[in-house]
Amino acid sequence: MAEPIEFKRVGEGNLRAQVYQQVRLTIQRGELAPGQKLVDVDIAAQLGISRMPVRDALMQLVHEGYLVGTTRGFTLPTLTATDVADIFEVRRLLEPRAAAHAARTLDAAGLKTLAAALQEAEAAAAAGDAALFFQANSAFRNCWLGAVENDRLSQTIARFADHVLVVRLKTLSHQPTQAVIVAGMRAIYEAFVKRDAVAAYDRMTHFIQNAEERFMKLSPPLQQFNDEAAIIPRQGKS
Amino acid sequence: MAEPIEFKRVGEGNLRAQVYQQVRLTIQRGELAPGQKLVDVDIAAQLGISRMPVRDALMQLVHEGYLVGTTRGFTLPTLTATDVADIFEVRRLLEPRAAAHAARTLDAAGLKTLAAALQEAEAAAAAGDAALFFQANSAFRNCWLGAVENDRLSQTIARFADHVLVVRLKTLSHQPTQAVIVAGMRAIYEAFVKRDAVAAYDRMTHFIQNAEERFMKLSPPLQQFNDEAAIIPRQGKS
DNA sequence: TAAGTCTATAATGTATACTGTTTGGATTCA
DNA sequence: TGAATCCAAACAGTATACATTATAGACTTA
Q1: Which nucleotide lies nearest residue A16, CA to C1'?
Q2: Is the pLDDT of residue A172 over 80?
């Protein structure tokens, strides 16, 4: 439970935005241990700035569901099986439609990026490199989401996908699951290439269902989590 | 452009939460003029507290899309026709499903509240009282949304519904539109009473489509808005 | 030895002060 | 009289200091 995490400043925007970006990337990359505490004053000291911008950034992440604020530091939320099911339900409703949009709007450059991400995912699955697989997966999703012209739709999806991603770190390390996911990605990619919105919709539906089933099948380890770190989240229903 | 808005403290939680609630309610009730500036130090002075909790609350509202932060105070966002279309698309995807959930989970007390809100809406429509109609409309939605057990789903819906509500203030004052909306509410209510999830799904789909069509039909006034107050929103894509 | 209480500490919540930037108005010059 | 530049005020961003609260650990008592 030491603090191996190193934050560094990225020169863009005001301090709050910089810290926000850094911490969010850290979370998305799965570099945060489940029980790890994020304390504003510590991060501030590390970055050589004051508490306030850090605090603002952390609170923004709380509002967006990436963190929970306890009275004793900010930590990753501990999602219950119900939480994950809820998130998957929303994703089931939104992502197929978004994929259909992307099938129409993706350009050649986007398809190329997707192909690269897909290859990377396949290579990672073959090599058993969970971290790389994880990263390729995110890159793939971010790419097609970027082509969706309805920003509110794509941002909502990105947020919820990120939330489960934190918990799915373990699931995504599972070799058979990786194979299923890669197959799903390829199917979706091919629908994109053909600019077939209907196929994209259907395959994305399938993909999400598969992902959820796979997750639920491997869920018992999740329960341990909840027992071991039963933090009462303070985030108001806001 | 005077400041007729009076904020008062509500005794619950920390200061930030109190301010947040107050300001959000003010927005939801449509008590905020489109060009109105919300300045943290002013509100703080009015409440007899310091800037920081107010600032936190306002920034949270910015993150949630209720406000935009300019370099010169916080104001209501000016939604374009595209923005509204985007929001309606997300609502079309989410609300029917949520209504189906509510049809199963609404209890007697909830149905009673819905009936009251419906009656109020009908009375307001008959009397031509736009403010009351507005309020009854919100009460109706908040009630059935409260019965949805998937909190992320219901909160996402509430947020997006609130966003368009700000712009729809004018639309909702339109008598024929009020009649259409009341009819839709009654149809949905009856599906709830019968605990018919399928009917609730279908009627909600219809309801949203109607609302969107009505809005778009009366949209020209919206364009004026954009011309007159073309504030470049500073909110990062966060 | 175990349980309960109390205290010390760590971390958030709040307040105030200062800085930097932007905008709007006023003044001056052409 | 109009346009351009400069100055002042307003407001967000940041920093630092103080208050509050909850938890963990220790100590006391049964």
Answers
A1: D13
A2: yes
A102 Cβ contact list (under 8 Å, min separation 6): A144, A145, A147, A148, A192, A200
**How far is Cα B238 from Cα A65, in angstroms, rounded to an integer?**
13
Taking the CA of residue A127 and the nearest CA in chain B, the distance in Å comes to 34
Tokens coding A143: 């790419």
Q: Is the pLDDT of residue B6 over 70?
A: no
* Set of chain B residues whose Cβ sits within 8 Å of the Cβ of A152: 65, 86-87, 90, 160
Q: How far apart are CA B104 and CA B59, in angstroms?
A: 37
Both tokens of B175, joined, read 């008598």
Q: Where are the alpha helices (DSSP H) in A5-129?
A: 15-28, 40-47, 51-63, 81-105, 108-127
- pLDDT, tens only, A120-138: 999 999 998 988 998 999 9
Minimal Cβ distance to A86: which of B56, B150, B237: B150
CB atoms within 10 A of CB A197: 18
Q: Which member of A65, A94, A238 has the closest CB to residue B93?
A: A94
Domains and CATH numbers, chain A: 15-76 (1.10.10.10), 81-223 (1.20.120.530)
Encoding tokens for residue B66? Answer: 């209720």
Q: Is the ipTM of this complex over 0.90?
A: no
Chain A residues contacting B, CB < 8 Å?
13, 17, 20, 56, 59-60, 63-65, 86-87, 89-90, 93-94, 97, 150-153, 155-156, 160, 236-238
What is the C-alpha to C-alpha distance for residues A121 and B228, in angstroms, rounded to an integer? 49
| A152 DSSP 8-state letter | H
Contact B158, B145 (CB under 8 A): yes
A30-41 pLDDT tens trace: 888 877 889 999
pLDDT of residue A236: 36
The tens digit of pLDDT for each residue in A62-82 reads 999 999 988 888 999 988 899
Contact at CB, B89 and A60, closer than 8 angstroms: no
CB contact under 8 A, B152 and A17: no
Question: Residue A68 pairs with which residues in a beta bridge?
Answer: A75
What pLDDT, on the 0 to 100 scale, is given for residue B182? 95
Token readout for B153 is: 């789903």
Residues A209, A129: Cα–Cα separation, whole Å = 24
Q: Which of B60, B87, B94 sits opposite A93 (nearest CB)?
A: B94
Q: What is the spatial distance, in angstroms and rounded to an integer, between the CA atom of A196 and the C1' atom of D29?
A: 77
Q: pTM for the whole thing?
A: 0.88
A71 touches strand D (CB under 7 A): yes
Strands of B58-208, DSSP E:
68-70, 73-75
Q: Per CA to C1' distance, which residue is closest to D11?
A: B72
